[in-house]
Amino acid sequence: MPIHSEQSTRIDLVAALRTASRLGLGEGICNHFSVELPEQPGYFLINPQGLHWSEITPPDLVLVDAQGHKVSGRHDVEPTAFFIHGAAHRSKPQARCVMHTHMPYATALTVIHGGQLEAASQIALKFLGRVAYDEHYNGLALDAAEGERIVAGLYQADVLFLANHGVIVTGPSVDLTFDDLYYLERACMLQVLAMSTGKSLRIVDPTIAQTTADQMVDDTQARLHFLALKRILDRDEPGWSNTEALNH
To answer: How many domains does the chain have?
Structure first.
């Protein structure tokens, strides 16, 4: 596979991880983003165990196979990581990128009874018909069976809320998946803030909601968003995209 293809994929995944950290979407050194390498199906890059998202560079990413076995990399992978991510990629092969977080507002909806993303804000309509819910928390995902159980709902959804746990967002590429992750948290933030007033949510009429969702299908804005985020990293975090170690 051409090295430039792997390099650009590494750079994009690091951009997503670092930006997520800047936005407060990470949790310690937990949670993981993974992406399938272009031109090499069945091989995935994932962030390593022990590194904070804010310090990861492209050479730090670990290459694993579909079973989660490390193929190359100077770091290890956290045990629960690919039980969830591998199952997600297998459950929905068209989802080349999988992002799992415990980001606060989305996770807040997973720790209340009946917590679901409601069609109460314009940005929430971006996810109309694209969300599923795993309503059963069963501890850490420390085996393949639990990973498969968790992600079963992704078969016909792009976003999965995990009871008492967090969320999984999937997509065809790093830039589009990150855009969904970002706006999912924004939609959940608006809903949680609105619910905190004690007033009832103003739900959008279903016909208008569907029309609006259809208007949001074009991905141009999402791709431009991610390019802007990489420019911000270039400005604020020199060296973040250094791939020099990959060339030796």
So the answer is: 1
